[in-house]
Amino acid sequence: MKKSHPLRRIVLAGAATVSGIVLLLTMKPSSDPASASAEGAPQGQQSVAPQGGAQAAGNGQAQTLTGDVVKTQYGNVQVRVTMSGGKITSAAAVQAPSGGRSTEVSSNAVPKLNQAAIAASTADIDAVSGATYTSGGYKESLQSALDNAGATGGGSGNASGTGGGGGSADASGSRSGAAQAQTLTGKAVTTDYGPVQVRITVSGGKITKSEAVQQPSGGRSSQISGDAVPKLNQAAVAAGSADIDAVSGATYTSGGYKESLQSALDQAGG
Amino acid sequence: MSTIAGGRAARRQTMRRIRPRRSPAVPLLIAVWAGAAGVLWLWWNNTPSIADDKGRVLNAGRITGLLAGYLMALVVLQMARVPALERRVGSDRVARWHAMSGRYMLCLTLAHIGLTMYGMSMQAGIGIVDQTIDAVKTLPDMGKAAIGTGLLLFIGLISIGGLRRRIPYDTWYHIHLLTYAAVYLSFWHQLSTGNDFAVEPAATTAWYALYGTVTALVLWYRVITPIRLNLRHRMRVEEVVEEAPGIVSVLISGKRLHRIGAEPGQFFRWRFLAPGMRLSSHPYSLSAAPRPGLLRITVKALGDHSTALRGLKRGTRVWAEGPYGALTASRRSRGKVLLMAGGVGITPMRALFETLPAARGDLTLLYRANSTQDLALWDELSAIADERGARLMYAVNSPDGERPDINPETLRRKMPDIDDHDVFLCGPPGFAQDAYTALRGAGVPARRIHHESFEL
Predict the structure, then answer these.
(1) What is this model's ipTM?
(2) Is residue A97 a contact partner of residue A194, using CB atoms and an 8 Å limit?
């Protein structure tokens, strides 16, 4: 029965809500899409043997196999293993879910899964608790990599179409005869709306094909990506460089695309 | 000497029966705030960084959306007629919470829509109107959400004070029920477009659990419980008695009504299955403790519904929901009790006057009415007062129409130990407000003034 002051209550509730939200927003670190990529790219710290591919061509015994990209609820998972004498000698996740809590979960689970894969030498490994989806994706990608080993026999490299790993230049084309064509995968770039990763095929110093291995998805992002990515792919092929225009309405995705594309081109040069 | 000793023994006996129950309001409010903190934590945890102002606007939209979604479940929960809320916190207080949080929820929803569409329109480089149309057309479940929002806005609009008073209560009430549809329609876009639910399956589970629990409680307490109650007791109108000018008592018979679980001071929501009255359900207090085959309500003709009660025929089926209300003996903490009734507010006071455990001389009823003619149930009250040794006082307007002044001085003059009483208060809003102020002035602490008021 205390006297109520509706106006005072409205003003107080409004002010408290607005200031609370503003406070929360200002407490979040602000970062632009470019600088966010460093923390978001998972493959750097998780690759156990990134140079496996290069060795494979040389000694004939060791074989680097990259599994399929498996989509999980939290992002893509892709596994690359090095096999020697029918055993897995090293395993690494080329891609793992990242962003927010996913980064944390991945950085905990992926090393364990790598070890388990080496110990088991099969895809029959236990899921890491708390990372069920990532584990499931890992196992599936690992199995596809092992299937490649069976299909291609000892000595030959990647089965076609499985895609390259982040950071390393997978010269899959050279093994199948055309010495010039080269498939390069750029690093995954984290944007506000999700990771972007570009894979290109370079032939004779030109980009003959460009595609996004990862792109923002979910809700409106799927729509924007579905619209922007084909345009960016065309632009990349037309320009032959990472100097392409951003697609309007998809500024972040375009920025991430260009950065990933540039990193792929850097590998070609190096 | 022996009478004093007897009085002391009786008083001790009474005190033993007083077990004040703490209202669960404080723990409930703490739980509500903890839930809100959890919702904010969900956002915090899923947002590593915000790039620029567009990101800030979009994230503000996300925060307001999450909070609105959370609050929406609570707003529905408040009206689920959960006994802990209705009987322990008090139906009136819960109804005020409902109105307050409903308004706040609507504001959060509008902020969520505005911020999200503005953020997306900046991102897409188109106008906010085009963006909104585009979002409603293309995003999953957004069509449903748009209809739901429209309903919510409409319901909010007709609940604004001025407009609400112009709409008949029953019409307003039935439109208000559309809220369930609105909540259902806007639920799905939260899961299908909400970032936080896409990346955090635990959040989705928690959201389903929240809304699932609320749905279950609504179904249980608003649908199944009343059906069971009415199948068990099968109530019918027994008799309609005129108590005072414009005040009638309705006697209701039924099976095993003493087992209906109603305490004196509580009310039911009554629906009389007579022509023209089927669609409306109104809260009326029991004006006597339930007897094995009989309940009694006493009603003043204030509106269409209460006037129509006069014409009820014997044997008319009655559909009741309840008991609700927290103005019961469990609220008191002291041996001495003052009951203050204004007009038809006498009904719960009459039931309490008869049943509140109290030693002789410790119970007082102060009855305020316009004239002695309007003192409904006076004969009964006198009989109870004689039997229980309780004091009965009335205050009516003087013959020239002047209102009696209820102020701290007169209260203290009549009852020098008034500050040692628990006070139960029931009456029209103006009376209740004046009485409350006077009681506080006379030194009664607020925690010992128990009142129920249905003005929102």
Answers:
(1) 0.79
(2) no
